[in-house]
Amino acid sequence: MRLCWLLFLVAAMATFHLTLGVRPSARDLRHCPTSCGDVDITYPFGIGTGCFRPGFELICNTTTKPPKLFFGNTTEILYQDTDVRYVMASVVFNIATTPGLLGTYNRSWQSPGRVLSTYNDYGDISQLVIVGCGIDVYLFDGDTNIVQGYCRSECTNLALKEKKLSGLPCNGIGCCTIDFLGGVRAFRFTITQRQETRSSITVGNATIKAFLCSNNPLEEFYFNTADLLSEKINASTIGATWSYFSVAITDQPNCSIAQLGLNKTHYACSKGSTCVDEENQRGYSCTCPADSFDYGNPYLLHGCKQGIPIQFVATENA
Ligand SMILES: *[C@@H]1O[C@H](CO)[C@@H](O)[C@H](O)[C@H]1NC(C)=O
Ligand SMILES: *[C@@H]1O[C@H](CO)[C@@H](O)[C@H](O)[C@H]1NC(C)=O
Ligand SMILES: *[C@@H]1O[C@H](CO)[C@@H](O)[C@H](O)[C@H]1NC(C)=O
Ligand SMILES: *[C@@H]1O[C@H](CO)[C@@H](O)[C@H](O)[C@H]1NC(C)=O
Ligand SMILES: *[C@@H]1O[C@H](CO)[C@@H](O)[C@H](O)[C@H]1NC(C)=O
Ligand SMILES: *[C@@H]1O[C@H](CO)[C@@H](O)[C@H](O)[C@H]1NC(C)=O
Ligand SMILES: *[C@@H]1O[C@H](CO)[C@@H](O)[C@H](O)[C@H]1NC(C)=O
């Protein structure tokens, strides 16, 4: 009798999860793709009906070899950690310029679903790297318009002209960087070309290249003259460019609102996980307890890897 009741509840909950897409179990997701090319896919991200939380839908583009995993049309996911704290993603801009003309170029990026933020936990700050000659760059928070920083790159350096520079940090010669002041969900930047005082390296029709990168010394970008001359950022020239992004649930402003009354049905954190407020009422994230080595996925029913006694199963959504 008791067993039937439990089974009924479990079945009802499964329907509930499927229709609302909140805290599904691993079983609910067993029809979902678990990877795209070399990249694992972890809920709340997913591909296909019933496989992702709203705002976290990914696209696997199989026309390339290996296939590439996209979030929106500008953000390529390269890695997702299994406890869903962050993703490593590539955001690049190849900006064609007109030779002989001094132009101004504006570009922007917005987090798909507004659920990613340029990562600045653990001391790894995201930075915008710009490869180009005779340029001034301003970076702005796309939501607040607050200036994140400025940099300038020149190509009048003799060693650069002789194409002898390689493996150098970006320091204003052919390349410069701007650190983000904090996590942002959207940014824009303006590149202004100016006449260089002395003749600079001949860059032909080379594009200005901009991309996000981690500022961790082990992971940051090192500049080669070839990067300046290449047409676009690709694996054989600049190499894989990527940055960390933190993941947040942004359909509610904070944990306490998300845990309240009606909103609770959309609450993303599974039992046994902890809700953590994002800065400035921008949402929340979930984490499994830190006392185990493998934290698990806090967005999945029973996702945290600690022994949850079976009698708590039926009460998860009560
Ligand atoms: C997949 O990538 C190719 C080549 O980059 C592109 O032409 C195509 O539009 C992409 N397809 C989707 C569904 O994004
Ligand atoms: C990218 O997606 C946005 C919103 O979905 C759309 O407005 C834009 O035109 C797309 N850009 C490209 C290059 O496909
Ligand atoms: C670029 O953006 C600035 C504002 O930040 C604006 O004044 C300027 O007209 C824009 N230029 C182009 C070419 O869109
Ligand atoms: C620049 O592009 C134009 C048109 O595509 C081409 O005719 C010209 O040869 C190119 N110049 C260089 C230096 O690559
Ligand atoms: C990468 O860029 C170089 C230089 O522009 C080019 O020769 C090469 O074909 C590119 N590779 C890919 C995979 O696009
Ligand atoms: C959560 O958000 C609500 C509504 O915006 C606000 O009134 C409340 O103070 C916030 N709580 C915390 C702990 O930030
Ligand atoms: C609950 O969610 C709705 C819609 O997302 C929102 O308008 C409301 O402010 C939230 N908070 C409460 C306490 O209902």
TrEMBL record:
Keyword Repressor in annotation: no
Annotated membrane topology: Single-pass membrane protein
Keywords of this entry: Signal
Gene Ontology molecular function terms on file: polysaccharide binding
Domain Wall-associated receptor kinase galacturonan-binding: start-end pairs: 32-69
Signal sequence range: 1-21
Subcellular location: Membrane
Keyword Signal: yes
InterPro entries: WAK_GUB
GO cellular component, one term: membrane
Organism: Oryza glumipatula
Protein name, as recorded: Wall-associated receptor kinase galacturonan-binding domain-containing protein
One Pfam short name: GUB_WAK_bind
Top-level taxon: Eukaryota
